[in-house]
Each structure stands twice: as structure tokens, then as C-alpha cells.
Automatic annotation (TrEMBL):
Keywords from the named record: Membrane, Transmembrane, Transmembrane helix
Pfam families given in the database record: Zn_peptidase_2
Alphabetical list of InterPro entries matching this protein: Zn_peptidase_2
Lineage of the species this protein comes from: Bacteria, Pseudomonadati, Chlorobiota, Chlorobiia, Chlorobiales
Domain of life: Bacteria
UniProt entry tagged with the keyword Membrane: yes
Protein known as: Peptidase membrane zinc metallopeptidase putative
Annotated transmembrane regions: 119-143, 149-170, 199-222
Length: 230
């Protein structure tokens, strides 16, 4: 199991895609974090403006530590931006901030994929960690008990793959909202959208890579089970 060459057939392509996606995100963000917005608006101001425009005055905009640690917290109605995104008036900053504001707007309108993803979080936190372990334990055990455990691990991990798939429309829709609002609210000009697109499209690729990794690992587990049963 630990040195199964077949594993790398499934794992290597999405892993390389993930590395490429991370490179693109860092490259695009570093480039456009040095390009100032013509409006002079920073990430925090952009987020606040979009939230107010969407009737979300109750959502707070806070600075948080960690590079690209930006996220929207639906439980506390808080939009948390990394320090660089929060304070800098750059194309990259307003693009990321607008994306996170897009999640807040999804929450307000009851966007179904976001609701499904939120419900799945507890199961995914268990399945992503315990699923592969239970699967491996089951594979090393003989008999019906081993097979049952292996299938239990697969089912748990399947929640992780499903979560990654549900995440895709959530992230794509948030970026779509961000791009539309940035121009319509005068935060960036149409000419500046090239930089926004570069940053947000690169970020979207990371979610595609994560989904590919989860799905390919699930397919690998199923392939191993098929070989065991054949």
C-alpha cells in the first residue's frame, strides 16, 4: 500500500496541477499587489463599499494575520482580510476583497451551493483525516471486517471529494459577482480588470486542482478495492 506505483499514476497529475496553480496565484498576486488602483481604494474600503451596496452593513471587515488568509465567516458575519489585502490600494487587494464580499452576498441571498458546503463542513473535517486511515486499516485486515472498514473509509473520504466539487460553483460565483461589482461600483476601471481577472482566475485554478486531487484519490481507493475483490 505504501509503495504502490499505481498511487502515483492517480496522484501525480493533480499534484502537479496544484503546484502550478499555487505558482500562478503567488505570481499574479505579487505582480498586481504592486499595481495601485486608480481610485486609490484599498481592500478594506472596497469590501465595505460592496457590503454596503448589498445591504450588508451588519457584516464586519477585519484584518487577520497570514498571507492570503482571506475568508468570509458566515457564523460571525465577518469578512476577514489578510493585512496586505486589507490595507493596500492595489489591484490584487481589491480583487481578493471583492471575492470575499461575494461570499457574504451569497450568504445573504441563500445561495444553495454555499449552504450545502456549510452543512458538509463537519463531515469533511472527519472524512479528510480519518477516511484514508480507516481505508488503509481495512485493507491490511483480512475477511469481511477488513472489507467493511475499507468501504467505510471510502465513504468517509467521498464526502471530501463531494465537498471539493461543491466548492467549485461557490468560488466561481463569488468571483463572478466580484468582477461585476468592482466595475459597476467604480472601484476599478474596465482597463484594470485585466489584473483582477489574473488574480481571481489563478485562485479559481487552485480549487479545480483541489477537486481533481480529491476525486483522483477516491478513484484510486475504488481501484484498489476492485483489485482486492477480483
Amino acid at each position: 500500500m505504501y509503495f504502490d506505483p499505481l498511487y502515483f499514476v492517480f496522484a501525480l497529475p493533480p499534484m502537479l496541477l496544484g503546484l502550478w496553480a499555487q505558482f500562478r496565484v503567488k505570481s499574479a498576486f505579487n505582480k498586481y499587489s504592486h499595481v495601485r488602483t486608480n481610485s486609490g481604494i484599498n481592500g478594506a474600503q472596497a469590501a465595505r463599499k460592496l457590503l454596503e451596496r448589498g445591504g450588508l452593513g451588519n457584516v464586519t471587515v477585519e484584518a487577520t494575520r497570514g498571507m492570503l488568509s482571506d475568508h468570509y465567516d458566515p457564523r460571525h458575519k465577518a469578512l476577514r482580510l489578510s493585512e496586505e489585502v486589507y490595507s493596500l490600494p492595489s489591484i490584487a487587494s481589491v480583487g481578493v476583497a471583492a471575492h470575499e464580499a461575494g461570499h457574504a452576498l451569497q450568504d445573504k441571498t441563500g445561495y444553495l451551493p454555499l449552504q450545502i458546503r456549510s452543512i458538509m463542513v463537519p463531515a469533511v473535517s472527519i472524512g479528510s483525516n480519518m477516511g484514508p486511515i480507516i481505508f488503509m486499516v481495512g485493507m491490511f485486515m483480512a475477511g469481511t471486517l477488513g472489507t467493511t472498514l475499507a468501504w467505510a473509509g471510502i465513504i468517509l473520504f467521498a464526502a471530501t471529494a463531494l465537498f471539493a466539487l461543491v466548492t467549485l460553483p461557490v468560488e466561481f460565483d463569488a468571483s463572478r459577482r466580484a468582477k461585476e461589482l468592482l466595475v459597476s461600483q467604480g472601484i476599478v476601471s474596465p482597463a484594470e480588470m485585466q489584473g483582477v481577472n489574473a488574480v481571481l482566475n489563478a485562485a479559481a485554478l487552485t480549487y479545480v486542482a483541489a477537486a481533481a486531487q480529491a476525486i483522483m484519490q477516491l478513484v484510486y481507493f475504488l481501484t484498489v478495492m476492485n483489485r482486492r475483490n477480483s
